[in-house]
Design a protein that fits this description.
The protein is of the alpha/beta class and 380 residues long. It contains nine helices and eleven strands. Keywords: Cell membrane, Lipoprotein, Membrane, Signal.
């Protein structure tokens, strides 16, 4: 997400800037999120035209590829496997490579929140020394280390998620249009809000997570001229603890809910569990990020309040990269995983947005066609 964007990121901001809008009214929220008319008094924009079938079709599946000779290194971002978000999505990509491509070895290692650049570089260099090839670095925080190690090991292939700043022949960027998927999250939030008041919680205030924020703000405002938005971050740039601090996520989301938000979208990695807990404890709804969080075991206790997730298909990107390496043709890897390539999107698990799926797909089609341009910079 950073994601999410790693995110996130998408993931998608202004340093710890809280939306100052207040809302003292509104009826008690129905946590099922199943009432399609919940936000009818909030929505001021007409429904978009119906999406043509081609706008929502999935990319064609590739044929069987033999990856049995690959020895993969997977360098996780903060939180690692089990974060129910960005890192788990990357892990799902390598897990699929094991089952579908026959990849025999995946060596995993996880960064810590206070880790030095030297430690990151040492992790990647050890992987290269062990003969792991290719090596996938999960998150933009690895950019400097990937550049240094890839230069030193030109015969080892590297991929880096959420960074495209490295111009080396053995480095492949895996980047996403987090703002496009987050636009749809904003639309869903506005439609499902009974108070016409929603919230965003970003993990770390970085350009990547500002993309998630930007799309969410634009999407919510696109469907409602009356929407109120709470907008905050857990930590400033450089402090990556914001991606693994559920108590802080809980406190921030609870504060937004106390000010009137009844649907909260997070782009905060493992801290998102705290956001979900706060939503459930305070009879609000929430939107997940990176993975389909409705189906994540680590947040299963809160699944009833998760209405959708902004899917950032890190799993698909990692899998397609490993498949391309196995085929010996990296030209098949998309330059940017966006709505058009189904690199980002939204989940429907639980059926809580089924009643507005036509709306979400209509806006998706307009973004894909270029009729709507989604900014990657937050507009206040």
């Amino acid at each position: 997400m950073r994601g999410t964007a790693l995110a996130a990121a998408t993931m998608a901001g202004v340093l710890a800037l809280a939306g100052c809008a207040k809302d003292t009214g509104g009826s008690k929220n129905n946590a099922s999120g199943s009432d399609g008319n919940a936000g009818s008094n909030c929505i001021t924009a007409p429904k978009p035209p119906a999406a043509p079938a081609a706008a929502t079709s999935s990319s064609a599946a590739s044929g069987k590829v033999d990856g049995s000779k690959l020895k993969v290194g997977l360098a996780f971002d903060v939180g690692g496997r089990g974060d129910a978000s960005f890192n788990d999505a990357a892990a799902a990509g390598t897990d699929r490579a094991k089952s579908d491509l026959g990849v025999p070895t995946v060596n995993e290692s996880t960064a810590s929140a206070s880790e030095s650049e030297a430690a990151k570089q040492q992790r990647l260099e050890q992987m290269a020394q062990q003969g792991l090839n290719p090596i996938v670095a999960v998150g933009f925080a690895y950019a400097q280390s990937v550049k240094a190690v890839a230069t030193k090991y030109p015969n080892t292939k590297f991929a880096i998620v959420d960074d495209d700043s490295i111009s080396l022949p053995n480095v492949t960027p895996l980047v996403f249009a987090e703002e496009q998927g987050s636009f749809l999250a904003g639309v869903a939030a506005a439609y499902k809000s009974k108070k016409c008041h929603v919230g965003f919680v970003g993990g770390v205030n970085t350009p990547l997570i500002q993309k998630f924020e930007a799309g969410f703000l634009q999407g919510a405002k696109a469907v409602s001229s009356k929407i109120k938005i709470e907008d905050e971050y857990l930590t400033p740039a450089g402090d990556f603890s914001g991606f693994q601090d559920p108590p802080k996520g809980n406190a921030k989301a609870a504060a937004e809910i106390s000010r009137g938000a009844d649907v909260v979208y997070h782009a905060a990695g493992a801290s998102g569990k705290g956001v979900f807990d706060a939503a459930k404890q305070n009879n609000a709804l929430a939107i997940g990020v990176d993975s389909d969080q409705y189906n994540q075991k680590t947040v299963a206790a809160d699944k009833d309040i998760i209405i959708t997730s902004m899917i950032k298909r890190v799993d698909v990107a990692v899998f397609e990269y490993l498949q391309a390496v196995a085929k010996g043709d990296l030209s098949t890897v998309p330059k940017r995983f966006d709505l058009k390539s189904d690199g980002v999107g939204y989940s429907t698990s639980g059926g809580k947005v089924d009643d507005i799926k036509d709306v979400l797909d209509g806006y998706k089609a307009q973004i894909v066609s270029g009729a709507i341009k989604v900014s990657d910079k937050p507009a206040k």
